[in-house]
């Protein structure tokens, strides 16, 4: 996958999140996964914090639509990808948004992604329409080109930062005596890293 981050064994917390790829999200995975619902993991280091991503991908197949709730249940983030040259794919994203909001509420971090910006001359979904819609449903809009590997790393890193901010805010509410937070209900894991002694004459392994 194109997303990445610097290594390092800094102290702090480790965050574990579940992210689901919907629509044409499978096209952002490099190299491509088999044409079936797939699961992969990715480890990132963001602002000194470790982030473990569990990414679920339905490979854009319609036969998985009915099983959608199985894959996006307990998700902390969702990446919904449409083809800027295909208006129908954008309408499908709107359907996914409705399902996700109905099942998971407003806590889930939504990313609406216009892919194939390398084919802008063939665009059928205007930037203004897409960005306006994303804002109206509380999502953020991104522009990518899987072919040129453009905008994908920024997408994943920004999503991680947003999920971290949401989890931190919910932890503060929990600390103030609030009822069980949405992050707890969705299974967010926030673990304090144990300090590790540096081996004599050695260096720390990357995280």
Q: Quick check: average pLDDT? A: 78
Helix count from the secondary structure assignment: 5
User: What is the annotated CATH architecture?
Assistant: 3-Layer(aba) Sandwich
Termini, distance in Å? 17 Å
**Oligomeric state of this protein:** single chain
The CATH class name reads: Alpha Beta
Described by strand count, sense and barrel closure, the largest sheet is:
7 strands, mixed
Q: Can you tell me the overall shape?
A: globular
What would you give as the CATH superfamily? P-loop containing nucleotide triphosphate hydrolases
By secondary-structure content and strand pairing, the structural class works out as alpha/beta
Number of strands: 7
Family: Belongs to the small GTPase superfamily. Rab family.
Region (Disordered): 171-207
GO molecular function: GTP binding; GTPase activity
Protein name: Ras-related protein Rab-21
What does this structure look like?
With 207 residues, this protein is of the alpha/beta class. It has one domain (14-168): P-loop containing nucleotide triphosphate hydrolases (Rossmann fold), CATH 3.40.50.300. The protein is 29% helix and 25% strand. It contains 5 helices and 7 strands; from the N terminus they run E-E-E-H-E-H-E-H-E-H-H-E. It has helices at 68-72, 87-104, 127-136, 152-175, 182-185; strands spanning 13-23, 38-46, 49-57, 77-83, 109-115, 140-143, 189-192. Strands 1, 2, 3, 4, 5, 6 and 7 form a 7-stranded mixed beta sheet that branches. The two termini are 17 Å apart.
């Amino acid at each position: 996958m194109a997303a990445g981050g610097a290594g390092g064994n800094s102290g702090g917390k480790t965050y574990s999140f579940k992210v689901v790829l919907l629509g044409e999200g499978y096209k952002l995975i490099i190299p491509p996964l088999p044409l079936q619902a797939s699961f992969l993991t990715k480890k990132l280091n963001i602002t000194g914090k470790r982030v473990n991503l569990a990414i679920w991908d339905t490979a854009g197949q319609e036969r998985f639509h009915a099983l959608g709730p199985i894959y996006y249940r307990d998700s902390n983030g969702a990446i919904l990808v449409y083809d800027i040259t295909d208006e129908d794919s954008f309408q499908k994203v709107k359907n996914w948004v409705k399902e996700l909001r109905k099942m998971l509420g407003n806590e889930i971090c939504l990313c609406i992604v216009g892919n194939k910006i390398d084919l802008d001359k063939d665009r059928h979904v205007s930037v203004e329409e897409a960005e306006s819609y994303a804002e109206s449903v509380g999502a953020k809009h991104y522009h990518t080109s899987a072919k040129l590997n453009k905008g994908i790393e920024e997408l994943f890193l920004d999503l991680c930062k947003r999920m971290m901010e949401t989890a931190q805010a919910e932890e503060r509410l929990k600390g103030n005596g609030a009822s069980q937070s949405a992050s707890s209900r969705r299974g967010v894991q926030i673990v304090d890293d144990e300090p590790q002694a540096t081996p004599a004459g050695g260096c720390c392994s990357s995280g």
